[in-house]
């Protein structure tokens, strides 16, 4: 088959695609020793699932289900949901937005595809613009989302060493440069893969830089406030006309509803809506239908603050305890976990790459994600890029412990 450039670019084998295939096969194998510490799936949180199921019953009883599955929403997404969400965000954060600032997509991944390609790549005047990630490592899902090659540029972080075998990446403002070919600045906060939450002051500086250079600041808030609110540190959430805040229902426990939300100025909202109209006709209606009443009645607060966040906090505490116990004799550091549901481990001076370590662990039915692919556009000669692992700690503690034991034994033999 003869493929276009687009066809080739979007079907070629990427490292992360192969990993996802591996993870899918591992799930399907039902192997009794399987420890699934890879993947970005949110955990099954039974109390949250019960609330979603009840809401679906309510939609059926109220005949709203028919509307949910029976009509196309407008390309910007379901109108009442946009209104209710805007009101909720204004009340919660003191903003002044309206439905004209809210557009829905089929998941954040879809939002980033639209945003990156609408803002960067080949420009009408023949110039080429890029999306800048000010802090690497960053979410691997961005890496292949550009229609053109080389659409991203990243900066190495400063590494701050902390107590208790922890460290934290910080934006290296001395190195950061917003050159003329930058179309937008983008970061995930909390960050996948590290669990980092870029501090309020650092974020304010990025906002200032973006405004100074007249480029949007895209904040990927997939794990942040107000939902799912998987964030364990003090983090302010501000919005202005230059901010593009990307939210999602996935990490609340609804990845199958494929609902992304973009909060942005009216120009960007119109752009997203126009792209949706052409590419998907209309965004998915399921997430909006499920969440409208919950947001309007404030039940979302109960869901996030009493169910989702405590669930992941308990998981995190258990994961830290197991980490401290199992890796005590090894030169392994953990990124300070401030949000999301991943541990990011730095295996200092690891004698092999984490891709090789991944293969060894896979043979023992323990699945983690090697860190290399998260260092988008960073020179792989920097050894650090080959010394990190991402672990999803949404698993039952005994699985986590079993997996950590296998990882530690493998590392001990390597060191
Ligand atoms: C930081 C980050 N952004 C975006 C996404 C994509 O989420 P969605 O399911 O909304 O497309 C993910 C999913 O893992 C993520 O971790």
Structure description:
This protein folds into 2 domains: about 5-50 and about 300-415, Aspartate Aminotransferase, domain 1; about 70-295, Aspartate Aminotransferase, domain 2. Strand 6 and strand 7 form a beta hairpin. The longest helix has 28 residues, at about 300-325. The protein has helices at about 5-10, 15-30, 45-60, 65-70, 80-95, 110-120, 200-210, 265-280, 285-295, 300-325, 355-365, 395-415; strands at about 35, 100-105, 120, 130-135, 150-155, 160, 165-170, 180-190, 215-220, 245-250, 260-265, 330-335, 340-345, 365, 370, 390. The protein has about 425 residues and is α/β, with parallel strands linked by helices. The strands form 3 sheets. Strands 2, 3, 4, 5, 8, 9, 10 and 11 form an 8-stranded mixed β-sheet that branches. The protein has a 6-stranded mixed β-sheet with strand order 6-7-12-13-16-15. It has 12 helices and 16 strands. The mean pLDDT is about 95. The structure holds pyridoxal-5'-phosphate.
